[in-house]
Structure formats: C-alpha cells, structure tokens
Request: fold
Amino acid sequence: MTLKMRPSCECCDADLPADAVGAVVCSHECTFCAGCSEHLERVCPNCGGELVPRPTRVGDALRRTPASTERVVSAGECPGTGYCGLAHADRAPERLARHAERGSTERGALDALLDEVLAGTLSTVVDGRPWVVPMLFARDGDRILLHGSTGAGALRRVASGAPAALTVVSVDGLVVAHTTFESSANYRSAVVHGELVTLTGAERAGALDRLSDRLLPGRTGEVRPTTRREEAATLAMALPITDGRWLLKARAGGPSVPEEETAGAWCGVVPLRTVAGVPEPAPWAGDAPVPASVEALVGRWT
Reply:
C-alpha cells in the first residue's frame, strides 16, 4: 500500500502538492497543512493520532504512482483559518515598545537593509519550543526568499503556513561614551513577521536562482543549471513583506554630551563595516581565472 498523497488540507482546503513539503498526516492519512497542524497541536481531530510531516513523491515515482485528486474537507469550522494567514484584517500592527523614536516606517529603508545584509535569523515555534536558525536570504520585491534541505524535519514542519519572524541586523559602529553605561552601538535592524509559503515547480527553480544571484550576481550564468534531483532536495520558501507586520529600528551618531565631568575620558564612534578579502581558489581549481561574479562581489564589499 502506498500513500494516497491527498491534494489538500482537510481543514483550510489549502493545496498540498505531492512533490512539495508542507503536508502532515496521521496513521490513517488524514491530511493537513503545517499551519493547521500547529493550531491543532499536531493531533489529528479525527482519530486522535499524531500528525507528522508527509514525505514527498517526485519525478518518476510520482509519474508511476500519481497522487490522489480527491479533496477531503471537514464539515466543521477550521480553527486554523486566522492562524494560517488567511485572515489578518483585525491584526494589530507591529509596534516598538522601547526607543520608539528610533523606529521607521519607510519601506525604502527596510528594502535597503534587506538588500545589504546577507543572513538573518528565522524564528518560529515547533512542538511548543522556540526554533531559531540563521539563514541566507534574498529580497524579491514584496517577499523574502529562503531555502534549506527537504531533509530538515523542523523546517518541513514550518514550511507551509506556520507563523514566523525573520530578524536581520547590521552593526555600523560602536559608540564609546564617558561610561560603559552610556556606551551604545550604531545599528540598523528589522523584524519581518508573516507566514512561510512553500514554493514549488518553476517558482521554486526561479527562487533558487534569485537566491544564488543575490549572493553572487551572475553566478547562475557561469555554471551548469540546477538538476531536478538537486531542486527536489532543496526546500524553497517565501516570507511575505506585509504592511503593519514589520519593524525597522536604527541608531546613528555619536555619544550623548555628558552631564558630568569625564576626567579626560575619550569619547567617540568606532565605525564597523564588512569587507571582502582576496578570493582564495580551491586547490583542485587549477589555473581557472576568477569569474566575473566573484570579482563583482569583491568590488561590492571593498
């Protein structure tokens, strides 16, 4: 007996393709999306069994044994509707609680930070515990692209419909004041809240290319295309950038003027920046010249 690979979530009726992660099943193959599964506390409402990530079926295996086309939808109210991001009309905007004067609602400043920083920290909750992992990312218009291995169990659980937050930060300098208490840092930071969406098919392939070109512009044109097997082993996700669901905060400038004698203590700012070093070829690369993509990267960060 093989899994039927039902095509949709029994709760919210979201599509769950057989060749994509994001579906969870019980031992009777009741099928739900990852978002509804979290809301249901990973317990099947039909049989009481545990909901676990469903394996994917791709390529020749999917052609030999096609997925079911029968959509099963529960007659009861779906408790995951709001949780899965299908309704946010009554959600309060994200707000800064401390140093609100350092906040900004300028979308251009957010985009500039996301386009500059190479890595961020993705956070969510899995099995009632915090789940935090650093990840490379790329902004693609009004969404943030991320990727990982389809073999990562926790990532599979949160890849479709789970609430998440991506945090990025750039420390631009250390602010040295007349006391350690008054010292600070110049920085730009952002937190983007939303629900992760799994990308499939041509959209997944395009997202992976955009991620590569964001890190090394032009590199995809210098090497062979990604194979289907490599694509199938890679999980591509998108986090939407939605008004009211992101925070941007920054500090700039020097230390505050002290209201007491400083006894000659030096005060000021130590600027910090990321720079690229000289490219180091792999020992087996021979005399291959440094490609244009790498030269452009070095030029950007120097």
Notes: The first helix runs from residue 34 to 39. The helical segments are 34-39, 59-64, 107-116, 153-158, 201-215, 228-232, 292-300. Confidence is low (pLDDT under 50) at residues 81-90. The chain has three domains: 1-87, 100-253+264-271, 277-302.
